[in-house]
Amino acid sequence: MGSTPTRRRRWTALLGTAVLTAGVGGALTGPASAVTNVDFATHCIPPAISGLPPIDGTTTAKITADNTAPKVGDTVNITYTVVTPAAGNPTDLALPADIMTPTGKVTLGGAQTGSVTVAGPKKNDPVPGRAPFPSFSMTGSFTVTEPGAITLSPGDYNIHTSYILELDTPCTVTNPPAGVSETVTATANPPANTRTISLGSASGAPGAAVAVSGSNFTAGATVTLAGRAGANQTQDTATVTANSSGAISGSLTVNDLATTGIVAYEGSAWSDTKGAGPAAYAVVDDPPVPPGSQKVTATVKAGTLSMAQAGDSVALSAVDFGSGTASTGALQAVTVKDFRGGPAGWSLTGKVTDFTGPGAKIAAGKLSWTPACATKPGSPSTCQAGSAGVVGSAGATLASTPDGTATGGEFTANAQLSLDVPAFTPPGSYAGVLTLTLT
């Protein structure tokens, strides 16, 4: 009989204090200047089996966000860090590591209301007897649905422990909501620009009027029609009014011999968010030949889009068996010649097969590249290198040029290659086929 109370006290101490343990690392950090630590009264209820009374104390916490200036539709990742929990270890018994998993809520206010569920990993340092509990962090995310200032406040949290028994200790905000720790200011995400125009003809003599029609403009808006000479606007302009369906119809008299296209836009100046075009247009200057003169003409013929490789094989560096390191090398340079004329750009993409070897293979997704592209001086277009990353069987872009009023030129594309060879891949030679496609 004398030992029973002692065993009961030890059992209660083990259960009660373990449930209140809170030590989780790995907090994400946001902009320090925008984050405020918040102190708030907290009411924690240990499991009934612990025999401990409710704990009323003060929690210090903060909220951080990975993006404090999102657009509507963006996902914002947040971290709820309990810097100082409301309770500490009330016994002399040390608590073991990695026994708890925290969860909680972050309260949204201002332009967007609601709550965000957050959770932390099962990880904590040992807690000595009578020592304060260490801080812990929980992460989650939410999608921005409204523009404006969205406030983030710490909310209720729960401590789940896996020590002897699976138990929970909920801690609630005594006077909700707690103070604001972080503010996210969201901006509206403008809808896609679907404005389009078409021309009645693609060329005309100086002073000829070209019919312009379009759709998806703002109903009732004043729309400017203008000539373009490359990237610059000419003096040839006219205005029309969009009807109740957003359609436009009018004409533009084109005098500038350098005109290469026609645009239509709302507002006082061209904007790709409120404009359409350019639609290709050329001024054909064909004055009559004076008496005693001869008209001399020359023709520029459109060429083709082509590519040529410096070679058809690449030998990557050897790796040691068991090392699991990258086999690297350089793609054979590819020369692209765009002599077509006209407004179309081009795209050079590549995809690769699995690398097969002696009784094994290395997956195509293990090959990555870092593209580069150079433009020959004098070329109307500018080459853009693709993004670094996995090539794989799905393929990736090596280089490209955009559509425009004047395109063409000569370009050189290449890439640094890296094949991630898994550790203990059987020794031998492995080969895959990298196919490049120009469109």
TrEMBL record:
Keyword field: Signal
- Its signal peptide is 1-34
State whether keyword Signal applies.
Answer: yes
Recorded protein name is Beta-xylosidase
Taxonomic lineage? Bacteria, Bacillati, Actinomycetota, Actinomycetes, Kitasatosporales
